[in-house]
Amino acid sequence: SVKLVARILCNGGLAEAKFKDGVKYTGPESCAVKTVVAGGDKMCLYGCLGGGDCVDACQFGAIFMNENGLPTVIEELCTGCGQCVEACPRGVIEIHPEDRKLFVFCKNHDDPKRSKEVCKVACIGCGICARKSDGSIVMKEFLPEIDYSKLDISKIPFDKCSTNAIRFVHPEKAAELLKEEKIEVKVN
Q: What are residue 131's phi and psi, to 5 degrees?
């Protein structure tokens, strides 16, 4: 059987996400609390709030907050139990087979203009990935959706994504992952 692991599908950390003007959140570091209090301090209404509720929910120590204020999954420790998914009020965590490596690292359904305003790495809904794919990517509410049953990794134009929202879980290993497929890839 294939091992399941949690995937954090947001790249909008402290360096990338824009914060609300005049909002200085000083309450408990909790995503659930931040959601109730003015919807959090980030302008993106869909992204990770960085409060670490997923870290607290993980009984296996498989998630930690990185220096950019985003949760990071230690795949070797993750059991795919889904407790982190339940703890995330924004739905940016999903459980997937460990061997599934290509994802859209954005949940923003806003129009392209608004997406650009709230996060440097948001998917801008341009649709180039869907238009250039083999039919395994379709656009839904300004976000690409990958149909893994149709996916031919050699036909996905992830290198065309201007914000790098669609990419491999471990971009530094992308060239190695694709070597077997005989595909050249640039790593951003």
A: -65, -35
pTM: 0.87
Domain stops at, among 77, 100, 123: 100
Q: How far apart are the C-alpha atoms of 186 and 166, rounded to whole Å?
A: 13
In a domain, 188, yes or no: no
Q: In whole angstroms, what is the distance from residue 60 CA to residue 64 CA?
A: 11
Give 88-146 pLDDT, tens digit per residue. Answer: 999 999 999 998 888 999 999 999 999 999 999 999 999 998 988 888 899 999 999 99
How far is residue 87 from each of residues 59, 79, 84, 110, 137, measured CA to CA in Å?
12, 16, 5, 24, 28
Report the relative pairing of strands 63-65 and 102-104 from DSSP bridges: unpaired
